UniProtKB/TrEMBL annotation:
Organism of this sequence: Vibrio zhugei
Listed EC numbers: 1.-.-.-, 1.6.99.-
Protein name in the entry: NAD(P)H-dependent oxidoreductase
Family classification: Belongs to the NAD(P)H dehydrogenase (quinone) family.
Top-level taxon of the source organism: Bacteria
Annotated InterPro entries: Flavodoxin_fold, Flavoprotein-like_sf, NAD(P)H_dehydrogenase_qn
Length: 190
């Protein structure tokens, strides 16, 4: 049994990412302890205006998010691609929460900081309005590089799998059902 955190990173209240996260939770809950968070329900200032030079107090939703990250053993990020990357509110969440002495620690004399979230795994599920192959090989797969390499790896979280679903726009009810079933199957593989 693992402690699984499912993050619906779409800031819209009603989204296909929300449906996907619900299916993931339902499929995983029989074998694992699962907690879910919806970005649309969170309230916080997205900008880290002072960078790391000044400590900015975390709003209650950000404190709770840090607690969930600390609690988790496996993190599932379900996010849409907006302008090639994650939605701005989700990037703001990362900026505000993955801070020094929580996600990493600078060490004098070392080029790379210590990773403080080691021991956790992750899974990224991406929805797109473009064909996944076009996004990955023509547009450069920015979301994968940003989430997997620049954020998760940097903090010590090992991404196990990235799944691309799309194009969502114009998809049929049947195709969306196939994607929901696929996400359920992924949850059963944890």
């Amino acid at each position: 049994m693992k402690k699984v955190l499912v993050i619906n990173a779409n800031p819209k209240k009603n989204s296909f990412c929300g449906a996907l996260s619900g299916y993931y939770v339902q499929a995983a809950i029989d074998k694992h302890e699962v907690k879910q968070i919806h970005l649309s329900d969170m309230h916080f200032e997205t900008s880290l205006d002072a960078g790391y030079e000044t400590e900015t107090a975390l709003e209650p939703d950000l404190v709770r998010f840090q607690e969930l990250i600390t609690w988790s053993e496996h993190i599932v990020i379900i996010t849409p691609v907006w302008w090639g990357s994650v939605p701005a509110k989700f990037k703001g969440l990362v900026d505000r929460v993955f801070l020094p002495n929580f996600a990493f620690r600078y060490v004098k004399g070392k080029a790379m900081p210590d990773k403080l979230l080691v021991g956790r795994s992750a899974e990224i599920i991406v929805t797109l309005d473009t064909p996944p192959l076009w996004y990955k090989y023509i547009q450069g797969n920015i979301i994968y590089k940003q989430l997997k390499i620049a954020i998760l790896d940097f903090a010590g979280i090992k991404n196990r799998k990235t799944t691309y679903l799309g194009p969502i726009i114009g998809s049929t009810v049947q195709k969306r059902k196939e994607w929901l079933d696929k996400v359920s199957a992924l949850a059963k593989q944890i």
